[in-house]
Amino acid sequence: MEGVRALFGRRYTSRFPAEPAVVPEGFRGIPRFDAGGCIGCGACATVCPAKDIEINDEIRDGGAIRRLTIHYDDCIFCAQCARNCPTGKGVVMTREFDLATDDRNRLRESVEKELVCCELCHEPFAARDHLLWIARRVGTAAYTNPTLMLTLLNDISPGASMVPEKGEGPARSDRIRVLCPKCRRVATLEFSMEK
Ligand code: SF4
Ligand code: SF4
């Protein structure tokens, strides 16, 4: 009797993969990076309980790069990475769930961020976008920290001379020197916080 009922009753299964499956609102599919929203801080890798977000810092072409890679074959779709991302948009949970593939390269996704290197030891120590994000969050307090201040000023006017030629007026580097009030005003007010 049950067999006859099942034969003529409504279907309880979906036709996936012949037809796309409709997943409910709030469904946690795979997380994806957003290069524009990511600042390369690495918080997602720290909180990931499955330890499936890999961070590789590389010296490359005279600069340094941080590459973050999510390995979907280890991901448990818990969304801790997205919840703890400080920008709230560096990694987002999608509603994608179909990971069936015979190409393992499809099971990972990376984002790359430029790293800033120490001017003394030359070791990379933070992503440039991370420093800029902090500098803009703290506002004028960024000017109390030379690393934040110089990273911010370099972003505002890239390529501007950090070391003035002899006889030239104040440059950015002069802001962390002993200056007379007049030169201090010029060196400070030449650059604004606005991008
Ligand atoms: S900004 Fe977000 S996605 Fe990017 S590294 Fe930090 S926590 Fe991860
Ligand atoms: S969803 Fe969870 S397991 Fe997957 S990458 Fe994010 S934190 Fe790690």
Tell me what the structure shows.
The structure is a single chain. The radius of gyration is 25 Å and the shape is elongated. It has a 4-stranded antiparallel sheet with strand order 2-3-5-6. The protein has a domain at 27-138: 2-Layer Sandwich (Alpha-Beta Plaits), CATH 3.30.70.3270. Helix content is 24%, strand content 19%. The model has no long low-confidence stretch (mean pLDDT 86). The protein is of the alpha+beta class. α4 crosses α5. β2 and β3 (63-71) form a beta hairpin. It is built from 6 helices and 6 strands. One iron/sulfur cluster is lined by residues 31, 48, 50, 52-53, 70, 75-81.
CATH top-level class of the domain at 27-138:
Alpha Beta
Widest sheet: strand ordering: 2-3-5-6
**End-to-end distance:** 74 Å
Number of helices: 6
Strand content: 15-25%
Low-confidence parts, pLDDT < 50 over ≥5 residues?
none
Shape: elongated
Instruction: Enumerate the distinct ligands.
Output: iron/sulfur cluster
How much is the radius of gyration in Å? 25 Å
Number of distinct beta strands: 6
CATH architecture of the domain at 27-138: 2-Layer Sandwich
Tell me the structural class: alpha+beta
Main β-sheet description = 4 strands, antiparallel
CATH topology of the domain at 27-138: Alpha-Beta Plaits
Helix content: 10-25%
Q: Return the string of H and E elements.
A: HEHEEHEEEHHH
Mean pLDDT: 86
